[in-house]
Amino acid sequence: MRLLAKRHGAFVCENIVVLAGAPDPDQRHLMAWPHWALKHLYAPLGIMFGKFAQGVLESDRSGRNIPPAPFSFLSVRASVRRLDPIFLKDTPDLSTALARADDNGRDVFEKIPCDWKTVREWASSLPAPRKP
């Protein structure tokens, strides 16, 4: 909790490393669907997910290069409501869910079915991001 009081403490995250045998460019694609589903499940609770693929050069919002990740990973953190809409500008439904977030302790997987066909149907019902 002491980290939250520091200048960048609100951005403290946990990271989930994805060890995949796929070539570096394919790892970004490999993480896309789980990342999208997790964002939709957890935005209403005020939790943000990011994805970073091994070896992919990305830039921050100021255009500065971010060092390429040594491993592919999903990053998880509590939302920062005054800044996170920047990351969700292409997904207004997620931005709205985040603005109304309420972490009431509910199980986000409670209503998600366990069979793959139904999970795919659920995922296909999620709104796609707007193209820039």
Give a verbal description of the structure.
The protein has a three-stranded antiparallel sheet with strand order 1-5-2, with helices on one face. The protein starts with 13 loop residues before the first strand and ends in an 8-residue tail after the last helix. The chain is α+β, with helices and mostly antiparallel strands and 132 residues long. The mean pLDDT is 81. It contains three helices and five strands.
Taking all Cα atoms into account, the compactness measure Rg is: 16 Å
What is the mean pLDDT? Answer: 81
The percent range for strand residues is 15-25%
Number of helices: 3
Strand order of the largest sheet: 1-5-2
Portion in helices: 25-40%
